[in-house]
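User: quick one - fold this with nicotinamide-adenine-dinucleotide bound?
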Amino acid sequence: MKITIFGSGYVGLVTGTCLADVGHEVICVDVDADKIARLNRGEVPIYEPGLESMIRNNREAGRLRFTTDAASAVHFGMLQFIAVGTPPDEDGSADLKYVLKVAETIGEHMSEYKVVVDKSTVPVGTADKVHGVLERTLAARGAEIDFDVCSNPEFLKEGAAIEDFTKGARIIIGTDSEAVRRGMRECYAPYNRNHEKLMFMDVRSAELTKYAANAMLATKISFINEISNLAEHLGADAEHVRHGIGSDPRIGYHFIYPGCGYGGSCFPKDVQALGQTATEIGYEAQLLEAVEAVNLRQKTKLFDKLDQAFDRDLEGKTIALWGLAFKPNTDDMREAPSRELMEALWQRGAKVQAFDPEAAEECRRIYGERDDLILAARRDDTLEGADALVICTEWKAFRTVDFDHLQRTLRTPVVVDGRNLFDPRSVKSAGLLYYAMGRGDSLRRQAA
Ligand SMILES: NC(=O)c1ccc[n+]([C@@H]2O[C@H](COP(=O)([O-])OP(=O)(O)OC[C@H]3O[C@@H](n4cnc5c(N)ncnc54)[C@H](O)[C@@H]3O)[C@@H](O)[C@H]2O)c1
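Assistant: Sure. Structure tokens for the protein plus nicotinamide-adenine-dinucleotide:
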């Protein structure tokens, strides 16, 4: 099939590449000329495991192209995927200006039947809005051309995006058109061989499914963080509790790691946007509000633990920070807990020496050069002259640590672990003060 993808970010690039990889002809179009130039030079503007070689292979095979020329891209594909950003507006609702701009562009240039596929995460009712924009744009041209709009939300995770796209649990298609059903079935057929993954439903249910999925996952995270905070006060260990409840198949082990809050480009904005949708229809979404509030509080906990460890005297301290990305295997720092921590430390006159296997460049892009931020080339370089170590992201490279060396290198033996990576006994036996999530009090009892 001939497929056009608007937006060459995490979702557009992965979607386009994976669809090209199974034999479709794909054009990815983006308004960011620099991004397209880099892609055409063979560079990949984001870090996503496996993506670079897949893009190279499919470009070489002539199945995958990148352009800024929207007109030719609209002419190219029967399927027109919209995979542009939907950032939060001032009130937390999803800002649809990029999505609707693409709809207008398609309406301006199309000359035959197209299926417009909303892949961006968009509030319920957006497909109707996209439909309206297309109708008005075509009418302004005096063109009478048939089209359909469907919803095909994306569930990939950054860091495992290719695996998720190619082996995902489900492919949701929201449509009431038989022609769209046929087109989308053909598009995804290569990924639908093992068993039926396509789930057809009405457009509004498909749009809501995406928000419901992210809100559910965010709820699990905020739930365990709530329990973790209770454990700290009650002298229990949240890691034991996690094992205890995760073993129940009705609960499961996924997404119940006590931590320093969820970040990224999806959970925070999607929980907020769903909450805003609720407000607009006059419904008080109490659970969603609580999920967000718990998360905002959780993101301040690393700083609070450090502040407590240094008796509120952080001025002039140097903090080693491991992990800038909001989660491992990505360079994405959108809404990352590391940002909340660094900004709070800087405000209090502390300096940060940070290491991340992939996100240093992104960090430099966000914060620029500044005296109170050193981006180290190697993990342990951050420890030189540091007063304490904080772990924000659970990269594999952080899981094995020589605690004796850590104890000898840090000026004060303070380790704040936002991801509960270590066995408290091993850390403590090296003479380190270990502040983890939801297990502080059990440590105090060990010490006593
Ligand atoms: N990142 C994820 O893990 C993920 C997962 C599932 C769903 N989503 C959703 O997918 C959507 C895209 O997310 P992303 O992370 O890929 O965003 P992104 O910011 O990485 O990429 C968006 C791209 O769209 C481009 N763009 C903007 N306007 C355009 C236009 N008029 N024409 C062509 N290109 C245009 C931008 O230049 C940018 O390159 C969002 O709605 C997001 O919520 C993201």
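One thing worth noting: The chain has a mean pLDDT of 96.
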